[in-house]
Amino acid sequence: MIFRQLFEPVSSTYTYLLGCETTGEAVLIDPVIATIDRDLSEISKLGLKLAYSLDTHIHADHITAALELKKRVGSRIAAPAFDHLPCADIGIEEGRPFRVGSLDITPLHTPGHTDGHFAYLLGDRLFTGDALLIDGCGRTDFQNGDAEALYKSVREKLFVLPDDYLVYPAHDYQDRRVTTIAQEKKRNPRLGMDKTLDEFKTIMANLNLPYPKFIDHAVPGNKQCGVCPADLPDNLMQYCEQIALTPQG
User: Fold this and answer.
1) Which backbone phi and psi does 80 adopt, to 5 degrees?
2) What pLDDT sits at residue 242?
3) What pLDDT is stored for residue 244 in this prediction?
4) Residues 3 and 42 in one domain
5) Are residues 178 and 193 in the same domain?
6) CB atoms within 10 A of CB 213
7) pLDDT at 249
8) pLDDT digits (tens, 9 = 90+) for 156-189
9) Coiled coil located at which positions (predicted)?
C-alpha cells in the first residue's frame, strides 16, 4: 500500500492518501477543498489515479473537496449512507467492505460526534475521523451529537481492536500525527483508563467550547459534497477559493 498523511493548517485537518500498488487506484480520506491542488499533485507524483474521495462525516470546520475532485479528475464520491447525500455516488455502510483496487477498507459506524460518523479500518491502520483524537475526541454538542453514543462507539468498536493498531485522527492541534489503540486506552483523558459513561458525559457537558465559526456555512456546503456557499464572509470565501489562487503544500 502507498500511504501519505497530508495536513491542512487552517482547519488542522489530516487528509489521508491510500494507494493500491497493484492497480494504481487511490482514495483520499477527508480531502479539503483548499488543498486540492497539492493533493492531486501528490497523486500524480506517485503515479496513481484517484478513484474515490471518502469522508468520515459531514464536516463543520472545512469544505470537503469531494465534488471538486470529481469535476477535476472524475473520481467518485463515497460518503456514509446514513446521511443520504444525493451527491454521493456510493453510500458507505457498516458490514459492507469498501474496496479500492486491492485495498479492503472496513467501515465502522461510530456515531456521537455526528450521528452519521464513520471510522475506516485498513489492515492495522484506523482512520478515526473526529470520533477519537490524540488524547481527546470530537465535541458532541451539534449535528445530532450524543456523548453516550460517542462513548459506546469508542469503547465498544475502537478500543476492542488490537493494542498495536495505529490510530490516525482527522485533526490534531499540537502537531501530533499518530497514536495507538493502547495509548488512547491508557492516556486519553476523556475516554481512556477506567472513565465511566457518567464521567465522560460530565466532561463533554462542561467543555464550554465556542460555537464553531464556520459550521453554518460548512455543513450546508458539505451536504452538497463540497460547495462554497454564496453567503460566505470574504475571509472564509478566500479560504474556499484557495484552489484557484494559492495551492498549498
Assistant:
1) -55, 130
2) 54
3) 39
4) yes
5) yes
6) 12
7) 22
8) 999 999 999 999 999 999 999 999 999 999 999 9
9) none
* Nearest residue to 110 via CA among 142, 134, 138: 138
Residue 135: what pLDDT?
A: 98
Q: Read off the amino acid at residue 34.
A: A
What are the φ and ψ backbone dihedral angles of 41, each rounded to 5 degrees? Answer: -65, -40
Q: 18 is in which domain, residue-wise?
A: 1-104+223-249
| Entry pTM | 0.94
Residues of the chain with pLDDT under 50: 243-249
Cβ atoms within 10 Å, residue 61: 18
- Cell numbers 465534488: residue: 67
Burial class (CB in 10 A: 0-12, 13-18, 19+), 237: middle
169 with 240, same domain?
A: no
Give Cα separations from 49 to 25, 69, 120, 123 (angstroms). 5, 12, 21, 21
CB atoms within 10 A of CB 115: 17
222 DSSP assignment: H
- The enclosing domain of 236 has a CATH number of 3.60.15.10
Is 218 domain-assigned?
no
Give strand pairing partners of 136: 133
- DSSP lists the bridge partners of residue 166 as 125, 180
Partners of 107 in the beta sheet?
Answer: 120
Any domain includes 123:
yes
